[in-house]
Amino acid sequence: MAVVNMKRVWLGALCGGVVWIIWSGIINTAILGGHYMVVQEAGTMLKQPRYGFFLPAYFISLLLIAYVLAWLYAGVRQTYGPGPGTALKLGVFAGFAIAFPLNFSTAAWSPMGRIFPLWWMIELWVGAVLATLIAGWIYKD
Hints:
Elements: H1 6-31, H2 33-42, H3 54-80, H4 84-109, H5 115-138
């Protein structure tokens, strides 16, 4: 049984998570920023989050998911081989599981419009791929 280099898992998770947080910021400010104001004024989205700690908790969540993806990559590379191909496949499949179901149901049932769940799905799916690719690039046995 191979030994997992946990220091490299943590480093990959941290770097991948930071990139994911930056990607999230780009999506939610540059692309959705103006849309947030419209739906908040229409009353279909709150102007302030119910939880004042939402943003730090969300960023910590992304970092934790990046850790899980880095850890999974370290494990599956023994079976599927090291490299960007394995990291990409893991990121795509995990990103789908993370992003698609909830955002599909939000698009189906939410009155705020489909632009939000579409971009939230893209944010999470692409973020998972980026975090996994970075973790794979950093990981060494």
